[in-house]
Specification:
Elements lengths: L1 E2 L23 H4 L8 H7 L10 E5 L3 H12 L3 E5 L11 E4 L1 H9 L3 H7 L5 E6 L5 E6 L3 H6 L4 E4 H14 L3 E3 L4 E4 L7 E4 L4 E3 L2 E4 L6 H9 L6 E14 H4 L3 H8 L2 E7 L2 E8 L4 E9 L12 E2 L2 H7 L5 H8 L8 E8 L6 E2 L2 E3 L14 H17 L7 H30 L5 H19 L16 H8 L3 H14 L1
Parallel strand pairs: 2-3, 2-12, 3-8, 5-14, 12-20
Antiparallel strand pairs: 1-8, 4-7, 5-6, 9-10, 10-11, 13-16, 13-18, 14-15, 15-16, 17-18, 19-20
Helix pairs in contact: 3-7, 3-13, 4-13, 13-14, 13-17, 14-17
Bound molecules: flavin-adenine dinucleotide.
Flavin-adenine dinucleotide binds next to helix 3 and helix 13.
Length: 490
């Protein structure tokens, strides 16, 4: 059944048949001229961005990637249908970070204001020792990061993000079918057809596979290219818990953590914990990364149930703040456990009329908090690229541009997780002392130089300003437009 109603509705953009003002109808020959001079100009022009050739697009999966892409495409005039396997798109997950590289896209997609109501703008991230909770260093975030990148950084509950995206997609006329598992795709990749579990075949101009970390379309594309698509254990798993503020109320020892705007990162031997408040400080989110146990090796699921008793045992030797926080997890409460696997980069994200996005092509480990943000970047790039082609036969050009703009960048961010994992999980000793010294030095340099740590690189890449510049400073929609000519000439 298609989902057709929601309690809240948004007014869709008025369809005006104009594209970015300087965009000629034959986009290929002249797109080299930069048409967005800065973010503000782009934002102002965005509501009038209309696709030159409206397409019929099928999206597999209504996660963050699928819904964001549907919004960008529907808002620019394409006819979009999503097929989602689960019967109900409901509250699942825990905290997710929306960094500036994603929030500037979400603003153009008309969802940022709504997200701000539930999101928390983190002012500072505090890096702390596992054993005694002593602060090693910190990194300044909002409002300075927002001013620097002209887009905010916030943390939200994944369920809130998904709900807001779903509402916006529906208001733009996207048709979403739940309980609609896609079980096969056309053996001829030049034909954009999918088959549902019911046996029905659906055809369109393009299929966007946003079917997540266990994507079967990725497996099909990899097979077609003769590539062995493997998933390798990182040796880590992550507990995800969300503690209700009411449970901690009155306990001054931890109340400041949920009321405040500071993210906490405790680093210890073999693991680390990232924690921050979400949903307007009503919930406290904790992701606790620890060494995997042998029986978990094959389970790469977001929804596996973990055990509170095992979790408490794992963190028994950690500081009392952490133990105190964990004591508030209800005994029968939701402790989810997520096995962290890494995936080798694919030779290509595109095959004929099929394209992969989000976790289906660049599954991100949580060490750099970029999973949702990179899926949203994919949505931004596809929206611009598919909007610029003057004919269905040029879908391949748009996908070529998408892959050129996104693949190298997405895979670099994906790979950075491994380096970060090593740094965050050092056992106490010389290497750990050196890491902590560098974190202190980098924090000090940033304080001295007005937020710029210059040459003093931070071994925690998430807190490193050069890496932040690379992750957060990019306006990927603007890049797509500016690189269009160049990429298609190659
Ligand atoms: C249940 C769940 C909970 C999560 N919780 C967190 C969290 O707490 N913190 C965090 O940082 N990240 C979480 N994530 C991951 C995060 O949402 C993604 O890393 C990121 O947003 C990229 O999203 P995506 O759209 O590429 O993939 P996903 O969000 O994984 O979405 C993929 C979608 O495709 C659907 N699908 C899969 N196969 C098929 C098929 N054959 N036919 C039709 N539909 C199909 C799935 O049901 C799913 O809805 C979670 C993901 C899921 C699915």
């Amino acid at each position: 059944m298609p989902i057709t109603t929601l309690s809240k509705s948004h007014k869709a953009n008025t369809p005006t048949p104009i594209t970015i003002s300087s965009l000629p109808s034959n986009s290929k020959s002249t797109l080299g001229t930069p048409t967005f001079t800065n973010n503000t100009t782009m934002v102002n022009r965005w509501p009038t961005f209309r696709a030159i050739t409206p397409l019929k697009v099928t999206i597999i999966g209504a996660g963050v990637g699928g819904l964001s892409t549907a919004i960008g495409l529907a808002a620019s005039g394409h006819k979009v249908t999503i097929y989602e396997a689960v019967p109900e798109i409901k509250e699942v997950g825990a905290g997710i970070q929306i960094a500036p590289n994603a929030s500037r896209i979400l603003e153009r997609f008309g969802v940022l204001e709504e997200l701000k109501k539930d999101g928390v703008m983190i002012t500072r991230n505090s890096m702390r020792r596992w054993e005694d909770d002593v602060e090693i260093g910190n990194v300044d975030l909002m409002p300075n990061v927002g001013k620097k990148y002209n887009a905010p950084l916030m943390v939200v509950h994944r369920a809130d993000l998904q709900r807001i995206l779903l509402s916006r997609a529906l208001s733009l006329g996207v048709r979403i079918y739940t309980s609609s598992s896609v079980t096969a795709i056309s053996p001829d990749f030049s034909v954009a057809s999918i088959q549902l579990a019911s046996g029905e075949w659906i055809s369109s101009d393009l299929v966007i596979a946003a079917d997540g970390v266990k994507s079967f379309v990725r497996a099909e594309i990899a097979r077609r290219k003769g590539f062995r698509d493997t998933s390798l254990s990182t040796g880590d798993a992550a507990y995800r818990v969300v503690i209700d503020e009411e449970r901690m109320r009155g306990d001054e020892r931890v109340a400041g953590l949920i009321r405040g705007d500071v993210g906490s990162r405790w680093m210890g031997p073999g693991g680390h914990i990232m924690a921050y408040p979400v949903r307007g400080h009503k919930l406290y989110n904790m992701v606790l990364i620890h060494p995997i146990r042998p029986h978990q090796l094959d389970n790469e699921s977001w929804t596996s149930k973990g055990s509170k008793a095992e979790m408490l045992k794992t963190y028994a030797g950690w500081n009392s703040t952490v133990r105190h926080l964990l004591s508030y997890v209800p005994d029968d409460g939701d402790v989810m456990e997520w096995t962290l696997n890494s995936h080798a980069p694919l030779p290509s994200w595109v095959e004929g009329r099929f394209v992969l996005i989000g976790d289906a092509c660049h599954p991100m480990l949580p060490y750099v908090a970029q999973g949702a943000a990179n899926a949203i970047e994919d949505a931004g790039v596809l929206t611009v690229a598919l909007g610029l082609i003057d004919g269905v036969e040029r879908v391949g050009d748009a996908l070529k541009v998408y892959e050129a703009v996104r693949k190298e960048r997405g895979e670099a961010i994906q790979a950075s997780a491994t380096a970060t994992q090593r740094q965050l999980h050092l056992v106490d000793g010389k290497e750990q002392e050196e890491r902590d010294r560098r974190i202190r030095e980098s924090t000090e340099a940033a304080r001295r130089d007005g937020g710029n740590n210059g040459e003093k690189r931070n071994p925690d890449l998430w807190a490193d300003q050069q890496w932040q510049e690379f992750m957060w400073g990019v306006d990927i929609m603007k890049d797509t437009l500016e690189r269009w000519d160049d990429i298609l000439r190659r």
